[in-house]
Amino acid sequence: MAGLRKTLDRPARRLLTAMEAAAYCGAPSIVKWRSSCSVRGVAVYDGRDGTRYDVADLDQWIERMKGSLPSKEDWLARLGNDGDPIEGG
User: CA nearest 60: which of 51, 78, 72?
Assistant: First the structure.
């Protein structure tokens, strides 16, 4: 049975191709991953194949989906309501 077990390690590289990013996120297909993932790629090379996805950004996206991290919009909404706004000067 040990031969059937997969180990999922963090990638050795920080920037992943779309296919690698989809696999890292556990998406059933790259099409479903592209339609659901809000992480913007980094244009490392010319063309669509030159786009890479930062593992750190993917991790943050996953944490936001789990509710572990507030979104940027949540932080902005809290300013002035629950937080102390910074007075300009």
Answer: 72
Q: Do residues 37 and 25 touch, judged by C-beta distance below 8 A?
A: yes
Q: In what order do the strands lie in the sheet with 15-16?
A: 15-16, 51-54, 42-43
| CB-CB contact of 21 with 59 (8 Å) | no
* Strand residues in 1-89 grouped as ranges (E): 15-16, 42-43, 51-54
Contact 52, 16 (CB under 8 A): yes
Cβ contacts of 49 within 8 Å, gap of 6 or more = 17
Convert the pLDDT of each residue in 30-83 to its tens digit.
Answer: 999 999 999 999 999 998 789 999 999 999 999 988 887 666 666 566 666 555
Per domain, the residue ranges of the chain are: 12-78
**DSSP conformation class of 71:** -
